[in-house]
Amino acid sequence: MIDGLRQSLHRLWSLFRRTQLDRDLDAELRSHLEMAVERNLAQGMDREQARRQALLDFGGLEQTRQIYRERRGLRFLDTMLQDLRFAFRMLRKSPGFTSAAVLTLALGIGANTAIFSAINAVLLRPLPFPNANRLVFVWATDRQRGIKEDVSSYPNFEDWKAQSKTFDALAAFTTRSATLSNGEKAEMVPAVQGTPGIFELLGVSPELGRTFRQEESEPGSSHVLILSDAFWKERFAGRTDVIGQTLRVNEEAYTIVGVMPSGFRISRERPEQVYAPVVRDPNRGHGFLMVLGRLRPGVSIRAAQTEMSTIARRIEEAYPNGNRGVGVNIVPLADAMAGDAKTGMMIFLGVVSLVLLIACTNVANLMLARSASRMKEIAVRAALGAERQRILRQLLTESTVLALAGGATGLLISYWISRALVASLKQFDVPRLADTHTDASVLVFTLALSLCTGIFFGAVFAFSVGSPRLNEALHQSGRQSTQGARGRRLRSGLVVAETAMALVLLASAGVLLKSILVMRRTAPGFQPENRLAIEFWLPPRKFSSDSRRIQFFKSTLARAKAVDGVHSAALIADLPLGGGSDSLSFHIAGKPDLAPGKPFQSLFNVASSGYFSTMGIPVHAGREFGDHDSADTAPVIVINEAAARRFWPDETPLGKRISLDTNLLTVVGVVGDTRQTSLGVAPRPEIFLNYMQSSPEWSWLVMVARTEGDPGPISAALKTAAQQVDPNVPVTRILPLDDVLALSLAQPQLWAALLAVFAILALVLAAVGLYGVVAYLVAERTHEMGIRMVLGANRSDVFSLVVRQGLGLTLVGTLSGIPCALGATRLLVHLVPSVRAGDPSTLTGVSALLLSIAFAASYIPARRSTRVDPMVALRYE
User: Fold this and answer.
1) How far is CA 727 from the centre of its chain?
2) Helix (H, G, I), strand (E, B), or coil: what is residue 44?
3) DSSP, res 300
4) What is the average pLDDT score of the chain?
5) pLDDT for 785
6) DSSP annotation string for 721-772
7) pLDDT at 541 over 60
8) Residue 865 pLDDT exceeds 90
9) Could you give the count of Cα atoms lying within 13 Å of 22 in the half-sphere of its Cβ?
10) How many C-beta atoms lie closer than 10 Å to residue 316's C-beta?
């Protein structure tokens, strides 16, 4: 064994001393040859005859050299180095072909690397927690509403924790907004309220101080606060004496007991600034908690899912009223943190994979076209005894070198694409996306992708020219050697394939863009021009009494209406397209519920008098809220048209009553529908309560002001007027309604723009590929076209022949790609819910576009074919 290892090391070392060993071998061979010549001379031969006989006895110098080289070195590495040197020489001889192929591959590999680097940062890179692979999100589900990721109630969370055996620990949290005030002004910051043990579950210790204690989840003992590292450094300049100090949060004093380390984050929404204990809520019907779990060692997610589903069924049987249809869904923490971005990233990974496949087919076609000039060279090598496997390996080495060069260039391109992607998604606050960079995983991915790419298109080329009948090419011209039907079918098949893939991307981009255009043309149901939205957050404890809340509402509206340039002002809880919506269950007087224990359900909102006229929402029947509607008058509601159609389809809803909790509310008006959640989602039934009489406990509200001109210049005056009412009520955002409308379209437009860019890239690559194939086929058939023209064909016949060939390939590819496009567009519903998959007009449009591009790509070669002199063509080789 030791001798074998020593021999292998010696062979490996010989590879680095090749030149010296070859000189020594040549000297030794010359010495032996001269000795043989001298022996022959001594036997009476003349010098020429003696040398000839010595060479015959020796068996050939070159064969002897090759035998000794194989004995002294590692044959595989030796031949691989030979292949690499030859590959570099061949690529250097054709700089135009090499540059085109490398750039084409770099675009495809670079796009894939950029998307993978984002996926790696968001999904694949381990979370900054110990044993992160055991951390999961435990979502509640609602079978009746089809919800797979829902929040849980506190009692359900406690039952899960008590009955589960597959988890080391369970903890829960909820995201909130906390109002920080100092008596002069108030500011709202993102906050997380968590159960004791949540930091221990994640395996993270505070940088300073301690975490929550068990008793601090009880009412009256929960006034402690832990700061994030960013908040600590910004507000307290990183002072270590911050422990024990107090902050006024939601109008109450909280004691700071800890500071979390840098980079720590729980919420997948906005990064939280402060942490507080969540107080136990005994209401089993109030879902507000997101639950985290740490699996026991060796326990799979499937095993935990099975156990938790059984526990959920037991809870549903024990408490049917609040848990009907409630189940459990367990997902890895990394996937849960990524949220909706995961689906988008995986879809776009598929998109760029198609772009890379199109690039590969283009390069394969380039190599097939180039094979004409190399056919004789390969045939000579075969005739001299080179085995078919040896030729195939040489050709695959060339393609791999080409792909690795494309991968190296693609890394540079991926850097720019990654930066643009991160900048585009920054506004959506995708967790960990900002940490996108090129690490070892990205480099390994790029290397593996480059190798697979090289093998893919190299195999197409190698097996098309590495035929055992290559020696026939020695008796043919360069063009003739590639005129076989198999070669033409292969090139045509590649064009058909890339046309079909381009159609899939174009159809997907077209469907998405059409959905965006439809959304932009969709009326939101209100008039956004010259209107301004000012968002507030009311500290719940300070505004717990009805009288105090109503007084704040009246004072705020009065000051806003007094600002110069304000035409009218009103209040709303959930602004249309503002990102918020709430639903409640209710009963209709005189109508039975949908089923026993299943009342009616609708979106609920809260508005003040003058809201509908301020927003430009038409009143179709009855009236809107007036100043005379107050806490001393009978409670009234206003409904939208969707609610009227849904709950009173064949009767007038005016005067009808609904029961909400213990209140009986009368319908006094029907207003037009508004798009509450998205321009692409049809209006849902919505019921409006009156801010001045129903005393709802919503802590957020939006003041809408209609201005006499551009609302921008008076936004500061409106903010000041609002804060003068109560400086401890923070104004969280001021935004023109035009911007609210634009923000609601921001994410769909981003997905559409990204998909359009990749689709255009695919279209360009497909057009270039088609042009190359048609141009080559024209050059290959020049002699045939000369014969056609000599026999009477006119130039228009030759022109139409070439164009028909290009259009025929594109038509076959288009027809092949339509079924794939129908399936692909269905996936886009995950990006934009309003997408109409398989839209016939879009498919027709992109098919026509592809055929137009095919005509343009075929036009130049076709025109060139008509300018050939028939006599020259007859002599064409």
Assistant:
1) 42
2) coil
3) -
4) 80
5) 65
6) HHHHH-TTS-EEEEEEHHHHHHHHTHHHHHHHHHHHHHHHHHHHHHHHHHHH
7) yes
8) no
9) 7
10) 17
Q: What is the pLDDT of residue 374?
A: 63
Could you report the per-residue pLDDT of 779-812, keeping only the tens digit for each? Answer: 666 666 666 666 666 767 777 777 787 788 888 8
Output Rg (C-alpha) for the chain, integer angstroms. 38
Task: Provide the pLDDT for residue 301.
Answer: 92
- CA torsion sign for 826, 828, 833, 837 is negative
Judged by average pLDDT, the poorest of 169-173, 825-829, 865-869 is: 865-869
- Rounded to an integer, what distance in angstroms lies between the CA atom of residue 63 and that of residue 65? 5
Q: 196-252: per-residue pLDDT in tens?
A: 999 999 999 999 999 998 888 777 777 889 999 999 998 888 888 899 998 888 778
477-494 mean pLDDT: 60
The tokens describing 8, both together, are: 């292998």
3-state helix, strand and coil shares in percent for the chain, rounded to the nearest 5: 55, 15, 25
Please give the Cα distance from 512 to 839 (Å, whole number): 10
Q: What is the identity of the amino acid at 724? A: Q
Q: Are 164 and 311 in contact (CB under 8 A)?
A: yes
Q: Rounded to whole angstroms, how far apart are CA atoms 765 and 364?
A: 13
Cβ-based neighbours of 626, under 8 Å, separated by 6 or more? 609
Q: What is the Cα–Cα distance from 339 to 268, expressed in whole angstroms?
A: 7
Task: Note the pLDDT of residue 139.
Answer: 92
For 593, the token pair is: 């519920």
Which residues does 593 contact at the CB level (< 8 Å), separation at least 6? 587, 599, 600
Burial level of 159, CB count in 10 A (0-12/13-18/19+)? buried
Return d(Cα 483, Cα 495) in angstroms, integer.
17
DSSP string, 132-194: GGGEEEEEEEETTTTEEEE-B-HHHHHHHHHH-SSEEEEEEEEEEEEEEE-SS-EEEEEEEEE
Q: Which two tokens stand for residue 484?
A: 């076989």
DSSP state of 805: H
Contact partners, residue 559, CB within 8 Å, separation at least 6: 721, 722, 724, 725
**Residue 870, token pair as written in the block:** 């028939």
The two beta strands, 657-660 and 246-249, are unpaired
pLDDT band, residue 297 (cuts 50/70/90): very high
Length of the chain: 877
Coil, strand, or helix at residue 549? helix
DSSP 380-406: HHHHTT--HHHHHHHHHHHHHHHHHHH
> Could you tell me the CA-to-CA distances from 238 to 210, 211, 257, 262 in Å, in that order?
16, 18, 14, 11
Is the distance from CB of 102 to CB of 405 less than 8 angstroms? yes
State the average pLDDT over residues 1-19: 52
d(CA 680, CA 380) in angstroms, rounded, equals 65
CB 857 within 8 A of CB 773: no
Mean pLDDT of 5-29: 58
Helix (H, G, I), strand (E, B) or coil at 391: helix
* pLDDT for 261: 92
pLDDT at residue 34 above 80?
Answer: no
Are 568 and 705 in contact by the 8 Å Cβ rule? The answer is: yes
- Dist CA 584 CA 186 (whole Å): 31
pLDDT range class, residue 134, cuts 50, 70, 90: very high
> Per-residue pLDDT for 639 more than 90?
yes
Q: Which two tokens stand for residue 700?
A: 């957020």
**Spatial separation of the C-alpha atoms in residues 172 and 151, rounded to whole Å:** 10
SS3 534: strand
As a whole number of angstroms, the distance between CA 763 and CA 770 comes to 10
Identify the DSSP state of 480. Answer: G
